[in-house]
Each structure stands twice: as structure tokens, then as C-alpha cells.
Amino acid sequence: MIEPGSTYVVMGILNTDSIAYATGKLIEELGGKVVWTAQNERMKKIFFDRGCKDLTQEEKDAMNFKYCDVTIDAEVEALFEEVGEIDGVLHSIGYANPKTCLGAEEMYTEATQDVLQGFHISAASLATVAHFAAPKMKKGGSIVTLSFEGSRPFPYYNWMGVNKAALEALVRALARNMGKDYIRVNAVSAGPLTTKAASSIPYFEHLSKTWEEISPLPWDTVEDKAEVANACVFMLGKYSKKITGQTIFVDGGANFMGGVLMDFEKPAK
């Protein structure tokens, strides 16, 4: 799926327990090169250097890390200038203040700045990344972002659900705009996964339970990171050249279901 020697930027790495890490490692296994980005040096030290006990220091040092805060245009521009020619980007970035934008019983919040910050990071930043990455994809390329069921509201997900809906709309708008440069833009929508990002979602276990009740294929909130990574790599690579503007669901099929599974429909243990 990946051309040997091709280069991809994987943005938003926190630790090894993430879709971003699984995707980047698969790219490397297939012969590609990965440039990893974290928001800043402090975040990398806290969550990656100290938090990832499953990697040796030698393995960590071998990773090509850069720093980029996607809310600062100059940092995004500097990142892609430094990286040079690339074949694609994985945008694995999202944030909403869990105290004001997640978990409440109603949508309204007085914390307007938190809402705007969440939208900027989780959705609008994709346009910034695409703008500065595009000139570095001289032969065309692929931009993939990570979503979570942007068409349906889930309890407690609140403003992040709104941000994901906006992100998927932005994918379509960018795909229309960037096709002339042979650049594809797509989203991969995963089912609920146990990651560092998920740990900040109030009542995450409710989402996991929901998937048990509606997913026609069994869904594993830990092991199925690899399945999502497989789809991300496919969308980044050469075998998806005519796919753009899409949200690809890797969620066990939960996205199309009407109602919960009947007993005779439930996956065998």
C-alpha cells in the first residue's frame, strides 16, 4: 500500500496507545518514512518520553520528531518547510475542554472561548495543515483525518460531536478544492477506542457499551486500533487514488444500524 521510501507526516502523537502511532508504525513496516509531530516539547516529554514504557530509549531516539502547534500558522508553515517533499499527512488532532464542552446534560455553555478553541483545534486546523502541506506534495498525495461518527449525536460527547461533524464537512470542502492538485482528502471514522484522548471523554464506557449493543461485527476497544490503522494506511497509500471527500467507517458497522442488535444477531463470543 505504501511506496518504499515515501514520506508521511503523522501529526498529533501522544503515546504508543493511539491510532496515530499504530498508523505510523505500519507505514514504516511497509517501507515508508514517518515524521512524527507533537504539539510541543513539554507534551512530548510528559506523554511520550515518560509515559511510553513499552519502547526503549533507543527506539524513541530513532523516531523523527518535530513540534507543531496547529493553532499557530507560523509553526505549521515552518514544519512543512523543514520536512520538504512528502506523500501524505495523517491529521490525528482533536481537543475539547472536558469540563465545559463534554459530559454535561445539555449543550449550552457559557465557555464560548472553550467552544471556539475546540473547533479551531479539532476541525479548522485541518485546513491550516492542508494549506501548508499541499505545496510539498508535488506529485499529489493524501491527507487523512480521524473522526468519530459526525452524523449522529451521542450523550456526553456534546461539542466534540459538533466538531467532528464540522471536520467531516471540511474534508468534503477541501477535497473539492484540492483535487486539481491531485491531492485527496478523506476522514476515517473509528469506533470507540481506549486511548489517551478517550480517557478525557466523560462516560466513555457508555460509548463502549453502545457499540456492544449495535455493532454487527464484534468491536474491541483495545485491539481494533490496528484495524483503524490499516484503513488509514490504505487511504494514505497508492491503492486509494480515486477516493476523496469520503468518511470511511471502521467501526464494526455500527454507523448504519437502526436500533440495537436482536439476540440472534449478536456476534458469537
Characterization of the model:
The chain has 269 residues and is of the alpha/beta class. Helices cover 38% and strands 14% of the residues. It is built from eight helices and seven strands. The protein has helices spanning 19-29, 41-49, 57-62, 73-83, 112-133, 158-178, 204-214, 225-236; strands at 7-11, 33-38, 64-67, 88-91, 141-147, 183-190, 247-250. It has a seven-stranded parallel sheet, with helices on both faces. Strand 4, helix 5 (112-133) and strand 5 (141-147) form a beta-alpha-beta unit. The longest helix has 22 residues, at 112-133. It is globular, with a radius of gyration of 18 Å. The model has no long low-confidence stretch (mean pLDDT 94).
Mean pLDDT: 94
Calculate Rg over CA atoms: 18 Å
Strand order of the largest sheet: 3-2-1-4-5-6-7
Helix content: 25-40%
Discrete helix count = 8
- Tell me the β content: 5-15%
Tell me about the biggest sheet? Answer: 7 strands, parallel
The outline comes out as globular
Encode the helix/strand succession as letters. EHEHHEHEHEHEHHE
Number of strands: 7
Helix vs. strand class: alpha/beta
- The termini sit apart by 32 Å
Return residue spans where pLDDT drops below 50 for at least 5 consecutive residues: none
